[in-house]
Amino acid sequence: MILMVAEHANGKLSKSVYEMTEAARTLQREGPITLLVLGKEVSKAAAEAALLADQVLVGDLPALAEYDAEVWAAAIAQIAQEGEAHTILMSATRSGRECSPRVAVKCDAALMEDAISLSVVGDALEAERYTFLTRVTERVRARGPVTVVTIKPGAFTPAKPNGSAAEQYDVELTLPERRLNVTQRMTEKSERIALAEADSVVAGGRGVGTPEAFAELVEGLADQLGAGVAATRAVVDAGWRPYAEQVGQTGKTVQPKIYWALGISGAVQHLSGMGKSKMIIAINKDAEAPIFKDTDYGIVGDLKEIVPALIRELKTTA
Ligand SMILES: Cc1cc2nc3c(=O)[nH]c(=O)nc-3n(C[C@H](O)[C@H](O)[C@H](O)COP(=O)(O)OP(=O)(O)OC[C@H]3O[C@@H](n4cnc5c(N)ncnc54)[C@H](O)[C@@H]3O)c2cc1C
Fold first, then answer.
1. Is 272 near ligand 1, meaning CB less than 6 Å away?
2. Whether the domain at 2-170 and the domain at 195-317 fall into the same CATH topology
3. Is 217's C-beta closer than 6 angstroms to any atom of ligand 1?
4. Is residue 169's pLDDT more than 90?
């Protein structure tokens, strides 16, 4: 079987699970596509998972209330071994990166990290991934009975849910003692949707001019649209915005339904992180800017005039 590990929060699966499912479906490998949902009181996430996978395995235990790499890895490896999984898919998120090597060791499996594509070639699994500061894309092949793959968020189009729900099965787990405990959690107060989860993204480049203009225009438009906020590396390097918002080869990969590019020239390194967006709308005062080669709708003009007008219009129609 293909075993996928579901990341979820507040009863909802993360977008990366949908993307991982798409990767699993295109593989068409032997056995059911299985989603493993671990945690405490996870019935909502498991019900959502049942619309994506061929079967859902649920480990719903108080001991799983808080994520812990050691405990999670033990649970995943146990289920992978009992179900004779040949492919184990996890998200290349912080927790996926932390947990996947442990799973690979326990299952004596090859590990392919940060896959941006995945296919079967003969009896091997082949992935593409960026390397050398993302200047090089390399192809790696894993042979052997079991392979663990982490999937780069944003690299695959999210899968559509199935029409009917798959069966869910509770699993019995033998878990190790937890050695780490989270003693405090400080949550950043933000109403804004996380970049990886957003259906629309408003991104700003150097052409926005200043950090103040970024807050007013890029965040202002994002607020009206309920969108995530992104930035180019030029903006992040200038210290206007945090690295977490950088999109591109050395930042995040996103694939929203709509990507607004404000004052962004369209360098290949930026395009590689957002070029698969369903619709790209660009505002740039330079009609020759490379971004226009990749946009569905392009507005040639000064964003400092156009964006405030857009925000005003959206406020009146809200
Ligand atoms: C190894 C490597 C990795 C990199 N990784 C990344 C990455 O992950 N992400 C990334 O973004 N970049 C990355 N870069 C940098 C990339 O090459 C570009 O330098 C960067 O994307 C440019 O950012 P920008 O579009 O904001 O700025 P610029 O290229 O300076 O473009 C600014 C644009 O704003 C327009 N403009 C100016 N004023 C206005 C106005 N008033 N109204 C409308 N338009 C206006 C200009 O016409 C111009 O097109 C990487 C580079 C290297 C070498």
1. no
2. yes
3. no
4. yes
Q: Which CATH class is domain 2-170?
A: alpha beta
Mean pLDDT check: name the lowest of 117-126, 190-199, 238-247.
190-199
Is the distance from the beta carbon of residue 153 to the nearest atom of ligand 1 less than 6 Å? no
Q: Which residues is 283 bridged to in the sheet?
A: 262, 299
Where do the domains of the chain lie?
A: 2-170, 195-317
Whether the model clears a pTM of 0.90, i.e. scores above it, the answer is no
Output the CA–CA distances (angstroms, integers) from residue 19 to 48, 117, 135, 194, 298, in the order listed.
Answer: 14, 11, 24, 16, 28
184 C-beta neighbours (distance < 10 Å), count? 4
Which residue's CA is the closest to the ligand 1 atom numbered 36?
Answer: 207
Q: Which residue's CA is minimally distant from atom 40 of ligand 1? A: 302
Please identify, by atom number, the ligand 1 atom nearest to the C-alpha of residue 235. Answer: 26
Q: Is 135 in the pocket of ligand 1 (CB under 6 A)?
A: yes
Q: Where are the alpha helices (DSSP H) in 133-250?
A: 211-213, 220-225, 233-237
- Any idea which architecture 195-317 has in CATH? 3-Layer(aba) Sandwich (3.40)
Q: Which atom of ligand 1 is nearest to the CA of 234?
A: 23
Q: Which atom of ligand 1 is nearest to the CA of 250?
A: 8
pLDDT of residue 154: 87
